Amino acid sequence: MPQYYRPTTRADALAALAEAGERGRPLVGGTDLLVGLRHHTLEPELLVDLKGVTDLPEPIAVTEDGVRIGATYTLGELVAHPVFQEWYPALVEAALTVGSVAIRNRASLVANSCNASPAADTAPPLLVHGARVTIASLDGDRTASLDEFFLGPRRTLCGPGELVTRIDLPRPAPGSGSAFRRLTRRRGVDLATVSVAAGVGADGWLVLGMGAVGPRPLRAESPGPVELTDAAALDGALDQLLAVATPISDVRGSREYRLATLRVLAARAVLAAADRRNPREMAS
User: Fold this and answer.
1) 122 within 8 A of 98, measured Cβ to Cβ
2) The total number of structural domains that make up the chain
3) CB 109 within 8 A of CB 123
4) What is the arithmetic mean of pLDDT over 143-154?
5) How far apart (Å, rounded) are the C-alpha atoms in residues 13 and 22?
6) CATH number at residue 23
7) Are residues 119 and 184 in the same domain?
8) What is the pTM of this model?
9) Which domain holds residue 26?
10) pLDDT tens column, 31-42
11) Who has the most CB within 10 Å: 11, 90, 175, 279?
12) What does the pLDDT average to over 179-183?
């Protein structure tokens, strides 16, 4: 069994992780980490519990410009918060698909993102909403977009001895809307076969976040506005946006099935996001 350490300051947590290097892992909710320990797919020598650290960023801070989400903020807290429900509906929809109520009340959004699963449910909407991460180390803090943060399956910019201390979400532009759609197997492992989040701007600008169709969560943005009432224009835009998808065949679905499903879900998410745009904000 690994050693357990519960520091009370960020400096102590970072020092312990830096000393342990590849052998150390931070612990917040533990919904994935503890499963990995139980099945011996993860075998760290040191667990650094962050729940007692008093000088991490506060769990949530809402400003006129957006929201800052700390490392200990849970998915259960997120889905119940009225600001997320109003500004980031795609993220709320995605978070509600993660596990059970009990799991959401333990799992943190930051830790879920740090797992870097290609099928992570919260990753597509975070990409759509322009999330940025702050990575702390003994050398100081650095920031990166979430799109830059994901490197590959279970690989991120956060290296040994480092911590992601917060995620920043900018406030959505007036008149924009977002939505999330997901498909899973009816029985078996509850991982997405395909997932997609869509953001639609007041002028018809589109951005998609995609899960389970590449080695990492993917983001694609239209080069210009799209006339969503024109079926041919929407089809053409989806041709461009979905070209980045490179799904594989596995137990959850074939490559061909995933590509076909992705297109259907993307169109549904775009139209649902467009319906959520506020007409008064668009007019202003």
Assistant:
1) yes
2) 3
3) no
4) 96
5) 15
6) 3.30.43.10
7) no
8) 0.94
9) 3-48
10) 888 888 888 888
11) 90
12) 97
